[in-house]
Amino acid sequence: MTAGLAAGALLLTAGCSSGDGGSSGAGPSASASRTAVQGSSSPSAEETPPAKGTVEVVRTVAEGLNSPWGLAPLPEGGLLVASRDEGTITHVDESTGRKTEVGEVPGVSAAGEGGLLGLALSPDYASDHMVYAYLTSVSDNRIVRMIYDPKRPAGDRLGAPDTVFKGIPKGMIHNGGRIAFGPDGMLYVGTGESGDRGLAQDKESLGGKILRLTPEGEPAPGNPFPDSAVYSYGHRNVQGLAWDSEQRLFASEFGQNTWDELNAIKPGGNYGWPAAEGESDDSAYVNPIAEWHTDDASPSGIAYAEGSIWMAGLKGQRLWRIPLKGTEASADPQSFLQGDHGRLRTVVAAGGDRLWVTTSNTDGRGDPEKGDDRILELKVS
What we know:
Strand order of the largest sheet: 1-18-17-16-15
CATH superfamily: TolB, C-terminal domain
CATH class: Mainly Beta
CATH architecture: 6 Propeller
Strand content: 35-45%
């Protein structure tokens, strides 16, 4: 792959990044990242964002959350937040910060990096009021959906879960867990290889993949492999999914010892794990558009806003900005909030130049302070 806008990466000795990253202090910033050109498919008129951006913490939306993971803004206002370890979903009033537990999701078996993970609203939420959740059960990782009824009493606002997809490998580590409905109305699912590296290259396995499903949990029409939910493979542990303004999919991925990744996702693409971690000279693998030393990222959630991907760092304890031109990083990644709020887990676009960001200091790997965990509102450019 041709190096573009090379940062002259500062090669550091990086410890193993477990599925969610460790709780280390912050290391160097952009000098520990690399960007590379992959050949853009963007229209020539597409505007390139500035090389440098800004981040302002507008306010703390809520605090006192336990192991927050999934975050789903409601169209009627308010945020639904999943607690990984408690298996509960909480409604947060984004104006007042008031927290109301809406219910516990049955069947959650929280251990290690597993539990109640990603949340997503049905594309038809206005009529069906369905909330989808990715959870770890006693036997596997699976996706369920539930009716959310805000008119019911607190603690009893979730209907019985309906399992729409199951059989994703589970482990103490590398459970993936991010789910999101794409612009095409299909459900995209980031999975991990559960610590069994060979699953990532096995197209018959659901581990180490990005899956694409119908809302009913069937393999989506047009998937690259016949009768298969697999959309891309060769992943280690995907916890971030986001689309840009041209409906192109990007995903973040945990590395092991050397390179975390941001990838532009191609249907049927092989992203190399375990043979490749980060950039590879093997043309069989799709190379990342940006990569980081594991001490500086260990990325979970991502979101698209203001022409850039914004990526949460757990072990790196910072927010990364990756400006885009098509499916390329148009400038070196830039870091913000380094060490200011500890581990960052989830990033969600809040409209315009705003983001919601959750901290993750009560997940067993952080150093929680009074008020953790929090939801922050950021203004970005």
